[in-house]
Amino acid sequence: MARLEERYFASEKALLIQTSELHRRLDELNGEAETLKGMQSTYVPRENYETQHEELERRIGAVEGFKSNMEGRQVVWGIIILIASACIGLVGRFIK
Length: 96
Hints:
With 96 residues, the protein is mainly α. It has helices at 2-40, 46-95.
C-alpha cells in the first residue's frame, strides 16, 4: 500500500511540475506574441508601399530628366562660348 501511495504522490508531483512548465512556456509564447504584434505595427501594407514606390520612381525620373536637360544645356553653352572665343580671336587677328 505504501508503494501505491508513493507512486500516486510521485505522479501528482510530476503532474504539478508538468503543469508549471506548461504555464512557463505559455507565458513565454505570450511574450513572443506581443513582440510580434509590436513588430507588425511598424510594417507598411504592400498597397501603400507600391503606391509610394511608384511615386518615388516617377519623381526620380523627373529629376533624371532635369539633370539630362541641364547637362545638355551645359554642352550647348560650352559650344557657344568656344565659338564666341574663336570668333573674337579671329576678329582680333584681322583688326591688328
